[in-house]
Amino acid sequence: MLRRTLLSLFLLVGSLTPASASRLATAVDSIGMTVSDLDRSIEFYTKVLSFEKVSEFEADGDAFEHLQGVFGLKLRRARLRLGDEFIELTEYLAPKGRPAPIDSRSNDRWFQHVALIVSDMDRAYRWLREHKVQHASPGPQRLPDWNKNAGGIQAFYFRDPDGHALEVLSFPPGKGNPKWRRASDKLFLGIDHTAIVISDTEASLAFYRDELGLEVAGESENYGPEQERLNNVFGARLRITAVRAAKGPGIEFLEYLAPRDGRPYPADGRSNDAIHWQTRLAAASVDEAAGKFRKSRRNFVSSGVVRTESGKAVIVRDPDGHAIEIVEQ
User: Fold this and answer.
1) What pTM value is reported for the model?
2) Max CA distance (Å), the chain
3) How far is CA 243 from CA 27, 54, 112, 316, in A?
């Protein structure tokens, strides 16, 4: 089992042990991002990437202001599904936030992406070219055979209409979660994980493993020309650590051992800014989670635990500024 879980560069593979009673986070529910035009984003994700729109709503008022940390907000949010996994797209009708820096790089610590599994990389790349997506990699990269954990995996980075990074992945026989090898006539199969750039793996493990209770599912160190071109970062050398809850897509840490000039998450970043992503985790007790975060002196996006129509929630930032929402299961 351990060997199987290590057979991955960018995904979280293998079966994990059942969640213990002490595990705080029981599932990764969805991966969210702030968009500038919800209708445009829905069209892109449904028409180009084969997501299905599940629901949409508008919200304003005291509860959401305190949850998202933005005063006077009015937002539209849509939930989309691909396979068994979900994303959420949020447009702030008011107040409008800041666009992403035009010179954003893959080693900046506000970087986050979702990894979409495709059944055929050549066909997926042709499809994305036909729809004129913005390249973040020069083209699909086949990871070298010397890397036994990742050899033969193909990957490509591109961007959505707001510049959010996305990745498509395909696997050679014997690698990847077995569910991605089920017979299917679909090109886009689902979401394996979201990847986040971090500054220190041990500090991130203290948050995601020790406080939230996620389990380490695999580790690797990756470098070489294919890795550099995939991330579009010259001289890239990454320590990659995958963590996973009992259900849902995983979370992958990308620590750049080189170069170490990635910029930190802006101290004044807010939920309505275009660089804002919000990964939602389900937990048995939001109050317990908030208590842990206060004890460890985490930075809160929310004013505290907030009750909305759908239940209790709190949003906190991880050690590098990535937003994590905890909702009561």
Assistant:
1) 0.91
2) 55
3) 12, 27, 15, 18
Dihedral over Cα of 61, 66, 69, 75: its sign:
negative
Residues 311 and 218 in one domain: no
Encode pLDDT of 115-163 as tens digits.
999 999 999 999 999 999 999 999 999 988 787 777 788 999 999 999 9
Q: How far apart are CA 24 and CA 212, in angstroms?
A: 5
> Are 66 and 286 in contact, with CB atoms under 8 Å apart?
no
Distance between first and last Cα of the chain: 29
- Give the tens place of pLDDT for each residue, 74-123: 999 999 999 999 999 999 999 999 999 999 999 999 999 999 999 999 99
Q: Which residue has tokens 């990454």?
A: 238
Q: What is the CATH number for 65?
A: 3.10.180.10
Same domain, 14 and 141: yes
| Overall number of domains in the chain | 2
Judge whether 267 lies within some domain: no
The residue type of 9 is L
Q: What would the pLDDT profile of 33-52 be if each residue is shown by its tens digit?
A: 999 999 999 999 999 999 99
Q: Residue 109's CB: how many other CB atoms inside 10 A?
A: 20
Cα distance between residue 230 and residue 59, in whole Å? 38
Q: Could you list the residue range(s) of the whole structural domain that residue 161 is in? A: 2-21+100-258
